[in-house]
Write a structure and sequence with these properties.
Strand content: 15-25%
Number of helices: 6
Low-confidence stretches: none
Helix content: 25-40%
Largest sheet: 7 strands, mixed
Length: about 180
């Protein structure tokens, strides 16, 4: 059974979906948020999943913050780290100390990396997008691809339409896989 440490900044819907599906018997061992008010914290607590909050101080380096995240994780047993909307670019400080760390990105990488993937997709006028589960490296959205799931782009789609379709039809399929 794979035990997962989830890192999220907001709702953590992919992490909660993985917890619902428990692919291969996987379970969430802990959820760490970098914002005190992240909705994923209440949702995880309601499910009996331990939570931690490690906010970054204004004058704190990325590496020092990651050391505190690693300290918060040190009392949990986990085999894999899964990011879900964790809006931090991780450095070697975290990546070298943690087990394999995965992320799901809302486009078919290497196309449309970064934070505004849905806008990029619509601006490019492509007919297919999707999501990519990849190993996290220090370079944003550039790690080895684990799996991808294609999702159609329909005429008249706006960012919200695309965002929902990619989440529900793409990410909810690919990330548990």
């Amino acid at each position: 059974m794979t035990k997962i440490a989830g890192l999220a900044s907001n709702r953590g819907r992919n992490l909660l979906h993985i917890d619902d599906r428990r692919p291969g018997g996987a379970e969430l061992a802990v959820v760490v948020a970098n914002h005190e008010g992240a909705p994923v914290l209440d949702a995880a607590s309601e499910r009996g999943i331990p939570t931690e909050v490690v906010e970054r101080d204004d004058d704190e380096s990325r590496e020092a913050h990651e050391e505190r995240v690693l300290d918060a994780l040190s009392s949990y047993d986990f085999d894999l780290v899964c990011l879900d909307g964790y809006m931090r670019v991780l450095t070697e400080t975290f990546l070298d100390a943690a087990p394999t760390t995965l992320n799901v990105h809302p486009s078919l990488l290497p196309s449309f990396p970064g934070m505004d993937a849905h806008e990029q997709v619509l601006d490019a006028g492509v007919s297919v997008t999707g999501c990519t589960v990849h190993v996290v490296t220090e370079e944003v959205d550039a790690g080895p691809i684990v799996t991808q799931e294609a999702v159609p782009v329909y005429e008249g789609d706006d960012v919200d339409d695309l965002k929902d379709r990619v989440l529900y039809d793409g990410e909810f399929t690919a990330y548990p896989r």
